[in-house]
Design goal:
Largest sheet: 7 strands, mixed
Strand content: 35-45%
Order of helices and strands: HEEEEEEEHEEEEHEE
Number of domains: 1
CATH class: Mainly Beta
Number of strands: 13
Radius of gyration: 17 Å
CATH topology: Jelly Rolls
Shape: globular
């Protein structure tokens, strides 16, 4: 069984006790980067959190791209996610849509291999759930985290950009089945629009209905390969299924 630290380095441990508080009542979930000026501070509620304490932070900044403000992510041997507390009603708004663009693939990255598990662009969703459904090993990891003052999500669903596997491929994190990745892009140098039903995808990969969505975020990471990567993210929107 991988150690607690190994799991943390695989992004199972992104602190969910953020200081910003839960999504304000009446506020729309997602990210409206286009509504602010380039160079401005990040929107309220978003925090740059390392995947484990001590990791080098990926740099996230608002920049102009083709007349629109977008989020630019620059990683150099770093691994941190821009995270927002969730509390999104997936029964009402299960669909997430966004745009992103990747400058280029990460050499030698392979999300199925632990020491090469990097991606230039990811959207990440953290879920609560009934821990009694977990394996003994997974429950032990959660207990160890609680003893250390941390909280592990019950399950983590990621949408990733990679050119090492075809679009539509589902990849289990090499250290734990509680993190599942779906490949949704692999073409560099151009903007891609993605629309996914988070609730349906969770059901597909975890074989159960999703629990409460506790947080969501953006992740550009190169800590395992030590490479550099750049990606751009447009607005993130939640909506009803159609």
């Amino acid at each position: 069984m991988p150690t607690f630290r190994t799991l943390a380095s695989s992004l199972l441990l992104v602190p969910l006790t953020l200081t910003c508080g839960a999504l304000a009542q009446g506020a729309e979930p997602g990210a409206a980067f286009s509504a602010v000026k380039p160079g401005a501070s990040l929107p309220d509620g978003w925090q740059n959190k390392p995947v484990v304490s001590g990791k080098k932070l990926t740099r996230y900044a608002l920049v102009a791209e083709q007349g629109t403000t977008v989020l630019q992510a620059d990683a150099s041997g770093s691994a941190s996610g821009l995270v927002h507390e969730g509390d999104v009603d997936l029964a009402r708004t299960p669909v997430v849509s966004w745009r992103w663009k990747v400058a280029g693939p990460i050499p030698n990255a392979d999300n199925s291999v632990g020491d090469r598990e990097d991606a230039p662009a990811r959207l990440v969703f953290f879920f609560d759930g009934a821990s009694n459904k977990l394996s003994i090993g997974d429950r032990a990891e959660m207990l160890a985290a609680s003893a250390a003052g941390d909280k592990l999500p019950y399950a983590t669903l990621m949408y990733i950009w990679t050119n090492s596997a075809p679009v539509g491929t589902v990849i289990a994190n090499p250290h734990t089945s509680r993190v599942q990745m779906i490949v949704v892009g692999g073409e560099a140098g151009k903007w891609q629009t993605v629309r996914r039903n988070v609730a349906s995808d969770f059901q597909k990969v975890f074989k159960e209905a999703p629990g409460k969505l506790t947080a969501y975020g953006i992740l550009t990471d190169t800590d395992n390969t030590g490479a550099t990567a750049r990606a751009w993210y447009g607005d993130i929107k939640f909506g009803a299924a159609k």
